[in-house]
Amino acid sequence: MNRKIDAATRMIGLLGHPVGHSLSSLFMNHAIMKLGINARYLTFDVTPEDLGVAVEGVRALGFLGTNVTIPHKTRVIARLNRIEEDARRIGAVNCIYRDEDLLIGANTDHAGFINPLKKRGISLQRLDALLLGCGGAARAVVYTLLNEGVGTIHIVNRTREKAAALTEWCRGQFPESSCSYVGESSRLSQAIVDGCSLIVNTTPVGMLPNTGACPLPDSIEIGEGQVVYDLIYNPMETKLLARARRSGAVPINGLEMLIFQGVFSLLRWFPGRREEILSLESTLLELTKRSLES
After folding, report:
1. Could you tell me the CATH superfamily of domain 10-107+256-293?
2. How far is Cα 70 from Cα 188, in angstroms, rounded to an integer?
3. Backbone angles phi and psi of 267, in degrees to 5
4. Catalytic one of 73, 119, 162, 289
5. Could you give the 3-state DSSP secondary structure of residue 285?
6. Parallel, antiparallel, or unpaired: how do β-strands 10-16 and 39-45 relate?
7. What is the DSSP code (8-state) at residue 232?
8. How many C-alpha atoms does 214 have within 13 Å on its Cβ side?
9. 111-253 CATH
10. By the 8 A CB rule, do 40 and 64 touch?
11. Which end of the chain has the lower number of beta carbons within 10 A, N or C?
């Protein structure tokens, strides 16, 4: 990469609110450097009121594209020219790229979510899953699980209305799917957990600074061989994942998903560099892991 910013430097960004905690610029700029591309990745704190202006700025200033994070993933759809099918069905965009003067919306969260499971050789076919939370990433997770052929998804969430909306969306997108609302975590039974091969936490419970919290009640035991996937990556090992490790389960944190969704975004912006971009996954993962541990 030309380390000097000049008139030919292209821009890529992250649109969100807030974005001060984001690690994306760290590993994305490292990837751009490794690819030898004259571009920079910057984060932009954009309030919901200014989202439309920001998207038009992306268009007018010739950005190669952007990532999109909370709270804009749904609202941004109306501002774009075209939406990829996966993003349309999920109802959320986390990556924008250009097709000449058109801005196209994609969702790389679902690919980022499934990649760590596939790399470990974990098949989701016909297994039952437990979903903790109905937050921003929940739809991408559920979409991926149903696409991969899971059996029943048991949903734990504090708010019945949000869980009902998610289950209704499941039935609309996958009419043959089976999604069941358990209730809040205190209603969760050991029998349901024992029947689930995969447990996914999409809540912020256990994230810094509240590292002593856990979305799974202390009375619930995690079984040996179960896969426990926590979308939190800071800390690297949440209380939930520590419990999983001690129980002989397979713990997966959210850092790999973060990196892989970024890699799949790079593939949208630089489609001619596919093999080089894919080869960067482990390097970007280690770089970001060291940053979190320092």
Report:
1. Leucine Dehydrogenase, chain A, domain 1 (3.40.50.10860)
2. 28
3. -65, -30
4. 73
5. helix
6. parallel
7. -
8. 19
9. 3.40.50.720
10. no
11. C
pLDDT digits (tens, 9 = 90+) for 151-209: 999 999 999 999 999 999 999 999 988 999 999 999 999 999 999 999 999 999 999 99
Q: What is the pTM of this model?
A: 0.94
C-alpha span between 38 and 112 (Å, rounded): 25
Angle separating helix axes 24-35 and 281-293, nearest 10 degrees: 140
Q: Where are the domains of the chain?
A: 10-107+256-293, 111-253
Q: Helical H runs in the chain? A: 24-35, 51-60, 85-90, 109-119, 138-147, 160-173, 190-194, 239-246, 255-269, 274-278, 281-293
Q: Helix, strand, or coil here: 25? A: helix
Exposure string over 55-91, b if 16+ CB within 10 A, otherwise e: bebbbeeebbbbbbbebbbeebbebbeebbebbebbb
| The pair of three-digit structure tokens given for residue 92, joined into one six-digit string | 């959320």
Contact residues for 84 (Cβ-Cβ < 8 A; gap 6+):
104, 105, 106, 107
Centre a 10 Å sphere on the Cβ of residue 225 and count the other Cβ atoms it contains.
10
Q: Is 73 a catalytic residue?
A: yes
Q: Is 111-253 in the same CATH topology as 10-107+256-293?
A: yes
Gap between the Cα atoms of 230 and 270, Å rounded: 30
Residue listed under structure tokens 């965009």: 93
> In the block, which residue shows the tokens 């974005």?
19
Extract the tokens encoding 181: 């609302």
What is the per-residue pLDDT across 99-154, written as a single tens digit (0 to 9) for each?
999 999 999 999 999 999 999 999 999 999 999 999 778 999 999 999 999 999 99
